[in-house]
Each structure stands twice: as structure tokens, then as C-alpha cells.
């Protein structure tokens, strides 16, 4: 069982930055691929970024955030981060942390609200 707790959301002006954090419980954190998804009001949840397990740490990004967002992980702190720069109003959404690994193991956090508005 893995529990995920997101933090770092808030209100920011267009062009600003935020860093989201996702703290995970459990001793097997390094074996999970960690990801961020987001869901805007009235829309489906969409992929934002992911970083594979610590042995490889390959990073993946949605086209809409490439060059602006950076995902990273610190296995010593069981934490994954999403650095978001050059934020746009269309980035407004609830951001969810996700942990997944083979065998059908998948967990979600409760979400953190990011609002980009002047």
C-alpha cells in the first residue's frame, strides 16, 4: 500500500512558477513510476509528466508542458516534484500524483489545486 500526499498548489499569475510536491509512504517508493496528472473543471483527467523507477529515471512529458515543467524525484525523501514555470491560464486544474508499477499496483493522491489567473 502506498499513500500519496500532494502539496504546493495555489494561485499564481500568468508567467509565474510553482513547485508541487508529492510525498509517498512505503519502503518501495523507488520501484514505482511516479507521475502527475491534471483535471480541469468539466474535463477528463490528463497526463502531465512521469518519471520512471529510480534505476532508469526516464522522464516523459505531455506536449503541452514540454520546456515549461520539470519532473524529478528524491528517493531518500520518498518525494516526487513538479516544477512548473511560465504558467498559463490553461494550466489551471487539480493536479494529482500517481504511483504505478507492474502487477497492477496503482495509487492516487487527493489532488492539489493550481489556479493561474491575473
Detailed description of the structure:
With 118 residues, this protein is mainly beta. The chain has strands at residues 4-7, 10-12, 18-24, 33-39, 46-51, 59-61, 69-74, 79-84, 93-101, 105-108, 112-116. The strands form 2 sheets. Strands 2, 4, 5, 6, 9, 10 and 11 form a 7-stranded mixed beta sheet that branches. The N and C termini lie far apart (40 Å).
Question: Structural class of the helix and strand makeup?
Answer: mainly beta
Q: What series of H and E elements makes up the topology? A: EEEEEEEEEEE
* Helix fraction bin: under 10%
Figure out the total of helices.
0
Low-confidence runs of at least 5 consecutive residues: none
Sheet having the most strands: 7 strands, mixed
Shape: globular
The rounded Rg comes to 14 Å
Mean pLDDT, to the nearest integer, reads 94
How much beta, percentage-wise?
over 45%
Q: State the distance separating the first and last CA atoms.
A: 40 Å
Number of strands: 11
- This entry's quaternary arrangement is single chain
